[in-house]
Amino acid sequence: VHSVASRSSSSKHLLTRSFGTESVPERKVAVLGAAGGIGQPLALLMKLNPLVSQLALYDIAGTPGVAADVGHVNTRSEVTGYVGEDQLGKALEGSDVVIIPAGVPRKPGMTRDDLFNINAGIVKSLCTAIAKYCPNALVNMISNPVNSTVPIAAEVFKKAGTYDEKKLFGVTTLDVVRAKTFYAGKANAPVAEVNVPVIGGHAGITILPLFSQATPKANLSDETIVALTKRTQDGGTEVVEAKAGKGSATLSMAYAGALFADACLKGLNGVPDVVECSFVQSAVTELPFFASKVKLGKNGVESVLGLGHLSDFEKEGLEKLKPELKASIEKGIQFANKS
Ligand code: NAD
Ligand code: LMR
């Protein structure tokens, strides 16, 4: 990551020295919902990231403690805790990346859409503040249902006149993390070398892993591909059931969220060829938002990459997911515009 410095000489934040972490541009990252199950380990992982110079931890309660704790870790960034709505503006001001894991998680038997009634309002108010205090920040939306919260954020930003489709991301990295782990197990491949694109959205069948494009290549049976697809689609539910009422994925999500934020920071810093899957405004299908491979650059999304070649099974999955994804997107848009 330190090599970033030498490649980003045009950055306005670049310090003059060209060695060590000091040559990396200054970057502020804010985590909203930082005292939660995802927020706490995510705060720690972002504290470990040498690309971050300021880390703002915001929640409605508990952040002074999290910030005091994480702040003792001897890494580059300065950590500040912000608590309550009065302090949200200060938490956001000057942020380059805002990560949002604020909101309620699922319990067994619930769908992500069952979280809509509570989380839609939370996301709407947080995005209203982002539009006011850091309209140029890249927004990494983790709060569920991502298929609706990302369109809500877009509508809030449009109303505020700050919307930039290059700067809004639904975080689907956990689907990729899972697909890689499950594929490595079946393909007998070293997991660190595995790549699997995951497209569509982030709920049930809207999650579509493209195992036909997975590398290293493996000769897996159709039956195995079907099972891997289903396990990836149900990965979140697997964790919700195992936690038996104590919430959903937090640790693997914090890892995935930290990976995606790191990719955003690298893109901002001018590192070339940073590509991650994300749920973004898209013209790849007829749906206004869609997850696919995205190239990240100095302004956020540099380009939304196409889907590549799909197997017949994946083509079928793509057609099947569209009505649900479309309805979730429309639900978000309607919510944002009705009040
Ligand atoms: P959690 O309940 O442990 O933590 C949520 C935190 O949000 C709490 O600390 C709470 O105080 C805070 N919060 C609530 N309202 C807030 C507001 N208005 N402003 C700031 N903070 C607020 O939940 P969790 O397990 O951390 O999950 C958080 C969200 O992330 C859930 O919606 C969950 O479904 C989602 N999630 C998404 C993915 C994904 O892949 N995108 C993965 C896992 C979880
Ligand atoms: C996940 O995929 O783990 C998250 O979306 C949380 C959930 O509710 O499954």
From TrEMBL:
<dbReference type="GO" id="GO:0030060">
    <property type="term" value="F:L-malate dehydrogenase (NAD+) activity"/>
</dbReference>
<feature type="binding site">
    <location>
        <begin position="142"/>
        <end position="144"/>
    </location>
    <ligand>
        <name>NAD(+)</name>
    </ligand>
</feature>
<comment type="subunit">
    <text>Homodimer.</text>
</comment>
<feature type="binding site">
    <location>
        <position position="59"/>
    </location>
    <ligand>
        <name>NAD(+)</name>
    </ligand>
</feature>
<feature type="domain" description="Lactate/malate dehydrogenase C-terminal">
    <location>
        <begin position="172"/>
        <end position="335"/>
    </location>
</feature>
<feature type="binding site">
    <location>
        <position position="144"/>
    </location>
    <ligand>
        <name>substrate</name>
    </ligand>
</feature>
<dbReference type="InterPro" id="IPR022383">
    <property type="entry name" value="Lactate/malate_DH_C"/>
</dbReference>
<keyword id="KW-0496">Mitochondrion</keyword>
<dbReference type="InterPro" id="IPR001236">
    <property type="entry name" value="Lactate/malate_DH_N"/>
</dbReference>
<dbReference type="InterPro" id="IPR001557">
    <property type="entry name" value="L-lactate/malate_DH"/>
</dbReference>
<dbReference type="InterPro" id="IPR015955">
    <property type="entry name" value="Lactate_DH/Glyco_Ohase_4_C"/>
</dbReference>
<dbReference type="GO" id="GO:0005759">
    <property type="term" value="C:mitochondrial matrix"/>
</dbReference>
<dbReference type="InterPro" id="IPR001252">
    <property type="entry name" value="Malate_DH_AS"/>
</dbReference>
<comment type="similarity">
    <text>Belongs to the LDH/MDH superfamily. MDH type 1 family.</text>
</comment>
<protein>
    <recommendedName>
        <fullName>Malate dehydrogenase</fullName>
        <ecNumber>1.1.1.37</ecNumber>
    </recommendedName>
</protein>
<feature type="binding site">
    <location>
        <position position="106"/>
    </location>
    <ligand>
        <name>substrate</name>
    </ligand>
</feature>
<keyword id="KW-0816">Tricarboxylic acid cycle</keyword>
<feature type="binding site">
    <location>
        <position position="178"/>
    </location>
    <ligand>
        <name>substrate</name>
    </ligand>
</feature>
<dbReference type="GO" id="GO:0006099">
    <property type="term" value="P:tricarboxylic acid cycle"/>
</dbReference>
<feature type="binding site">
    <location>
        <position position="253"/>
    </location>
    <ligand>
        <name>NAD(+)</name>
    </ligand>
</feature>
<dbReference type="InterPro" id="IPR010097">
    <property type="entry name" value="Malate_DH_type1"/>
</dbReference>
<feature type="active site" description="Proton acceptor">
    <location>
        <position position="202"/>
    </location>
</feature>
<feature type="binding site">
    <location>
        <position position="112"/>
    </location>
    <ligand>
        <name>substrate</name>
    </ligand>
</feature>
<feature type="binding site">
    <location>
        <position position="119"/>
    </location>
    <ligand>
        <name>NAD(+)</name>
    </ligand>
</feature>
<dbReference type="GO" id="GO:0006108">
    <property type="term" value="P:malate metabolic process"/>
</dbReference>
<feature type="binding site">
    <location>
        <begin position="33"/>
        <end position="39"/>
    </location>
    <ligand>
        <name>NAD(+)</name>
    </ligand>
</feature>
<keyword id="KW-0520">NAD</keyword>
<feature type="domain" description="Lactate/malate dehydrogenase N-terminal">
    <location>
        <begin position="28"/>
        <end position="170"/>
    </location>
</feature>
<dbReference type="InterPro" id="IPR036291">
    <property type="entry name" value="NAD(P)-bd_dom_sf"/>
</dbReference>
<keyword id="KW-0809">Transit peptide</keyword>
<keyword id="KW-0560">Oxidoreductase</keyword>
<dbReference type="Pfam" id="PF02866">
    <property type="entry name" value="Ldh_1_C"/>
</dbReference>
<dbReference type="Pfam" id="PF00056">
    <property type="entry name" value="Ldh_1_N"/>
</dbReference>
